[in-house]
Write a structure and sequence with these properties.
- The protein is elongated.
- The longest helix has 26 residues.
- About 35% of the residues lie in helices and about 35% in strands.
- β6 and β7 form a beta hairpin.
- The chain is of the alpha+beta class.
- An eight-stranded antiparallel beta barrel has the order 1-2-3-4-5-6-7-8.
- It starts with a helix and ends in a 6-residue tail after the last helix.
- The protein folds into two domains: about 60 residues, no CATH class; about 170 residues, Quinohemoprotein amine dehydrogenase alpha subunit, domain 2 (Lipocalin, Beta Barrel), CATH 2.40.128.120.
- The chain contains seven helices and eight strands.
- Keywords: Membrane, Transmembrane, Transmembrane helix.
Amino acid sequence: MKRRRDILFYSVIVIFIATAAVALLGITGVLTINETYLDTLFKALIIELVAAVIGLFVSTNWFGKNRLEAFEEVEGAWWQMIRKPGENAMGFLNISFTKEEQQIKLEGRAFTEQGASWARFWSISAAFNADTDELYYFWQGDEFQSDEDFSGVGFIRFTQSTDSTGKFGSATGWFTRGDLFRAEVTERKKVIYRRAADIEAEAMEDGSAALQQQLVAHVRTHWPSRCSQTSVDELKDELQPDSGEQGKELPA
């Protein structure tokens, strides 16, 4: 699809340049062109110029943020906590943008209150509003211990971080759960987010299943504080004496 767009774009550019060159050479007398044809070429050139100006005006975000630059402020790893009486389940989410496919992607895992990994989820479509700092998405997921599939829609509103990075550090939102393809909604849950520290993201990506379980439980207990290198090292040390715990594999 991207290749087709590129071909169409450059074809239009070539036609525009050719039309402009011939029309201008005819108007200045460098080329001898029948007056009727020259008049047609001149009108075509004017129409192309008007279309180009309108296209530039529509595609330019004159007063708001640059969409890609704004999206860079929300990209990365995020912790997700479900706010529900009697339930504070956790999620770990990665938000990214693929330049090749020109798509926003959300990929994550859900955890129990004890930190055990029990489901994964991913977006099937997403859109980001750079003016309001809001992300809308359709998602789908499945549980590790059952054949149940579920899906829904979600919404995230980001709030600006106070640190020096200039990136968003927290967010609020909600998501529905049910069967999106049958238009069935069984639950609607409120969610709060905070950006994961680099050491947390590294542990969730490369750490052992046991360490990830410990980290999820730690993040839930100490929300919204971020883990330091010392905190993660202490979690690793807690696992050392219990070799049985180290060998226990959980779904990734």
